[in-house]
Amino acid sequence: MKTRNILLLLIIIGLNFTSCVKDEVFEGPPVLSELSITPQAPGESDIVTVSVKATDMNSIKSVKLHYAVDGVSATGISMSAGSTANVYTAQIPAQGAGKTVTYYVEAENESGKKAYTPEGAPATPAAYTVGAPSIVLNEIYSRGTVEAPDWVEIYNNSDSPADISGYKVYDPGGQSGSKPKKEIPAGTILPGKGFYVLVVDDGTESGFGLSSGGDEVWLENASGNIIDNVAHPAFEPSQSYGRIPDGTGTWQILDNITRGTANDDSPPVPVILINEVYSRGTTENPDWIEIYNATTASVDISGYKVYDNGGQAGTKPKKEIPAGTTIPSKGFYVIIVDDEDASGFGLSSGGEQVWLENTSGTVIDDVTFPALEETQSYGRYPDGDANWQVLFVATPGSANDNSPAPSAVVLMNEIYSRGTTEDPDWIEIYNTSTSVAADISGYKIYDSGGQAGTKPKKEIPAGTVIQPGGFFVIVVDDEDASGFGLSSGGEQVWFEDAAGTVIDDITFPALAETESFGRFPDGTSNLQILSVITKGAANDNSTPPPATIILMNEIYSRGTTEDPDWIEIFNGSAFDVDLSEYKIYDGGGQAGTKPKKEFPAGTMIPAGSFVVIVTDTEDESGFGLSSGGEQVWLENAEGTVIDDITFPAFEETQSYGRKPDGSSNLVTFTEITRGSSNNNAGTLPKARRK
Asked: What is the pTM for the complete model shown?
């Protein structure tokens, strides 16, 4: 029971509290706004409709219009709620010419609280004079700059002068009261059918910029009545938004800006300009000039002409744009100038002047462009603007791009750590850019010694430039103080730019003598052991073909007439080998005093097998092997020496060769194994072989 009583008590307290809060919240008066009259400048036959917006957090009890004519005959009439939420209207009967009508609106809510509009009413009501001038917004420009700010044009739609002192113009900031309204200075008289331009984005407290994406503007008279307002859309910098005809017509985007003068909806004067020039053409991509239509309508440029000094001087014809050529609004047309026609002309890579003329022969644009690089053009930015600049991105037939010059990215691309005295260790640098050369003067490369500071870093010489997609190889294991050998077991190396910033580092593994370590494809992040070494050239990650191993395996120099001298060949490859055009010879063949002995065409040696060639034959290339020992050579079909052996003197029952077959271990055999394996043959004791 106690719990139930406590809950009831809490509910009662809550209701009382809510009631108190409600009273606190809704005890204020109604809110009145957007007082306006239609027509804004009534004539003597016009009934005037007064409208106002009235809101209240509780509810509106009544809205009344109070008006008087020439200060007498005060009348109060109820205003009716219309179809638009919270908007109330009432009408003032037509009055005679010259009559002054004062009026204000009173609203009361259910709490008995009242509000009045305009501000100061009822003591200071709004007013209009029948037959007085009609003052309206007439033209708006929202694409202003610092030099030429946004403005609003006001028009006197009557034949009589009007004092517009104290009239105000404002955007949503002034409408909401978050900032002051911009007031027209005292003493401003607007002649009949005259124009007055008010710069609104002037940097003062009441100044406001008009949004290029669209905005709304209001005009109120000195009594605080809204006499005109317009919501304008987005439009181009070459356009404005205005009435056609002045003062009374519908609002529309105008292609001719007429600040302070009569609005004009005639087609715009064509603005055709040279927009971009490319002077570093090739046979495949010749020099060109881009034409731009800066206007808001398509333009036929048939018969327009472009030319350089030759056309200007009359020493050659001007290049004419073909019939039927139309450029759409804000569109582009590219004309190749360096063609085979009599009027063709190449643009100087060192810079020159070019002209554009219309069909009347009037020069409508010209530009003197500077020397350009192969990757540059010269153009306006933005398109059609007066600002010319070197462009690092050529954009024939599309919007100009003033992106900064691309920078080359250079990386260590291949590392070789198994160098010799003749071919020391090296590191290859690669320029990944496709269009920009890289000056790597003063860049440094080093291993842990340079990293730790225990020895100097190896600096790349001044003037070292890598062309786009090019390579530079630096030998690191040299005699300089900064030289360092790369560890055959693998280590880390660093690469830094001229400012001392590390731009690349690689930890490479142990490598075989026939391997390097590098990026594949070039310049990518994919690092791998490469079986094909490509010093100073594009990396190759192919697997090399299996090695061909053909060796002299056994030599017999104590031949007879019945069994002449011979040499046994062993195929240590994993595949059969064709010995056609292979050659074997001794000092005579080596010196060139006699022909080398060539293997017969079609001589095949199976994998792991043997072929015996008799050297001491009757033909011209035959040669006997010296019983006292000598040197013999074996070369492949390309003429490359692939094996040579210097054998000693041995007995008639002995031979000389490799054990096991194909190895580097050469011995004197006590068992001759012509055409078969040496592996099980007896050999002289080691003591005999010194």
From this structure: 0.47
